[in-house]
Amino acid sequence: GETAAVVTGDPRPWWQRRSLILCAAALACYVGAEASLTTWAARFLSAERGTSIALAASAVSLFWGGMIGGRYTFSHWVRAGREKAMVGLASGAGIIAVLIFLGAPGQIVPLVALGISGLAFGGVWPTVMSYAAVRAVGATGAASSLLVTLGFLGGLLFPAWIGILSTWVGLGVALRGAVAVFALAAVLFALA
Question: How far apart are CA 27 and CA 69, in angstroms?
């Protein structure tokens, strides 16, 4: 099983390891959600909340500041065997924060929610990467490349999808697609 593979090294190539494929798919969704949010947040704040473009653009820095805090916090909280629970908790908090960002009226609450969403998002990438690395014994380089590549693929495709979708349903509704993709990332990682 998975435990023996972790201890002894799994002789199968990375593409035959279910946990690695699920982690890679989770990262594609996670980066897609992250990139969509950071690509479209300023536009959303400016167009739908009347925030000045200077403040709206600066708001994205709140998200990245939250990410820094989240990564640091996760580095102290996550322990082997608790990765899935921590990612599940962070994903739930991130989803709630993004929904508040999208749904709250005015400017202050959405700005605070964007920073909190960054805090919640912050630990997901490194936690999934480290979880996968432990399961990639004998194929760490190939597995890392797969994980990073699929993450970038999500960052390439999902923001464009949000932009196209926004022309039909509006940006606020389209950005809920980032919430759905983030939720999918959590589910995929839970199954890994």
Answer: 20
